[in-house]
Every structure is written in structure tokens, then in C-alpha cells.
Amino acid sequence: MAYHDDYEREPIGGGNPYYRCIHCKLAAPEINGRLEGHSLDCEYRLGKESGASEPSQRMVHAAVREAVSQGLLPKSAHGESEYLKMHNQIEAVLKAALDAK
Ligand SMILES: [Zn+2]
In this structure, which of 7, 64, 67, 76 has its CB flanked by the most CB atoms within 10 Å? Predict the structure, then answer.
């Protein structure tokens, strides 16, 4: 079974060490890599199930790696939130590029 852990996460906070899906707000340990672990109306889950023409996470990660190798981004992000910020910016750029087609 495929393990789905490429959804966007944010810290739960309030002393909780875990992250949660930014869309359905369910905790990562609860989701445990399962599409069904997300709520039925979770944007991530819906996107996966409909095979939407979103920029794929693979594209985003490739773009992040490319940017790092060109020195456009620092090699190591300061924590996961910093990385997510970069990740989301790049995803937005890719999305805009796809929409413009
Ligand atoms: Zn979710």
C-alpha cells in the first residue's frame, strides 16, 4: 500500500510535539500515511483521489532541490516550518505556471 506523507503539515503547537495536516487539521500520527486517515473533505485527500492537475509533490521537491543546488536557497532550512515556507512558495510558483498554460 502506498504511504502518503507528502501532505502539507504544520505544528500542532501547545506543547504537542506532532505535526498535523494543514487542510483537515488531523494529527500526523493519526493519519499515519493513509489517505483514509484524512477527513473526507480534506483538500489533500480530494486532490489525491481525483488526480487533480496540481503540481505534484515530486515536482515541488525537484524544484526545491534544484534551487538549493543553484544556491538560491540555503542548504539546510531552519526547522521544518522554514522548509515548509520555501516548499509552499515554490509550489505556488509551479501552480501559477501550470495555471498559465
Ligand atoms: Zn488532511
Answer: 7
Mean pLDDT of the 20-45 span: 94
- Domain around 15: 1-52
pLDDT in tens, 37-46: 999 989 999 8
Q: What is the pLDDT of residue 61?
A: 78
CA of 35 to the centre of ligand 1 (A): 8
Question: In terms of domains, do 40 and 17 share one?
Answer: yes
What is the number of structural domains in the chain? 2
Helix and strand totals (H; E) in the chain: 4, 2
Contact 91, 98 (CB under 8 A): no
Residue 78 has pLDDT above 70, yes or no: no
* Nearest alpha-carbon partner for 7 in 98, 91, 97: 91
User: Do 85 and 38 sit in the same domain of this protein?
Assistant: no
Say how many Å lie between the CA of residue 29 and the centre of ligand 1.
Answer: 12
The neighbourhood of ligand 1, an ion, using CB within 5 A, equals 21, 23-24, 38, 42, 44
